[in-house]
Input
Amino acid sequence: MRVESAVLRHVEMPLKFRFRTSFGETTVKKFLLLELRGEGLSGWGECVAEEGPFYSPETLSTAAPMLTTYLLPLVLGKDVASPPAFDDQARRVRGNRMAKATVECALRDLFARAAGVPLGKALGGTRDAIDVGVSLGISPTVPETVENVRKHVAQGYRRIKLKIEPGCDAERLAAVREAFSDITLTVDANAAYTLADADALRALDAFRLDYMEQPLHHEDLVAHAALARTLKTPICLDESIRSEADAKAAIQLGACKVINVKIGRVGGHGEAVRIHDAAREAGFPVWCGGMLEAGVGRAHNVALASLPGFSKPGDTSSSSRYFEEDIVEPALEATDGRMPVPAGPGTGVTVRQDVLARFTTAITELRA
Ligand code: OSB
Ligand code: MG
Output
């Protein structure tokens, strides 16, 4: 595949809700959108790096020059043999996984479109619909937390995940459990606790959580393993898992029982599938995380989540939950907590140029 040109857009889309986590608050989704053109087709990748370095060290302002200076020159005007061939070349660049994943995703989409196959199938996916849950930000009060859960349970989501932080945890969970004794419930701390908070975390065992996501520091697998030995609730890792090697280390150390796989965090579909395979071999479930993606990123998530090891509901909720209008069609919508995997070639979604243009704040066109 000869990659003729690339278009890198800065896009800003207002969110329908304030999303507060232990590390910050988002009200506008700002992202980079990459279009790679070749053989008369376009392949699309959405960069999940956020504005600030609070979830990941990568940001919008590190990913953009990483793409234009180091990563896009590896494909522009080149005959790229396959998406993994790009990975081989990009290996020299350390870290910067979200930037790499942007190119890898666009190539995966482009190659699958050229072959006329759905991306999910090309990756080894077996499902034509996926189970989805929802990730709810920290609400200001306990009653608002319960109300927000009520609304999303009524919409059919198959798992409710509540963001927590020290001081905003047990009281909210007790109220939610009291109101909804049967729902599948999880929490995500985004690394806000330390081992000194172990008692507070053990108190959450009372709420029959399916798992507790990333309670401790993102660089500390050993601490997670120590915590796991004293908790009933299984630990799920998000930030700590950047690669297949991290996943294998976490499994061997007993640092987690479940893994949240995010394409951007791990550098692309190739690494995501290797993590899926390693977890599956060890008998560990994985699920597909989210980064408040717009349609292109969401469609990539849905394709990945069609693989058989994604056996728990992911965070890829309906696009209409996040945005008044999305940049792709068909809309990615769940009914009763099930989202169909688009059947068309590539990600199976088409970018709505008119809508995209309205949300685009800057465009860079690149050629070899
Ligand atoms: O930790 O999973 C996370 C969003 C941004 C950064 C990190 C996380 C999240 C979410 C939202 O939980 C998931 C979504 O709805 O896309
Ligand atoms: Mg998380």
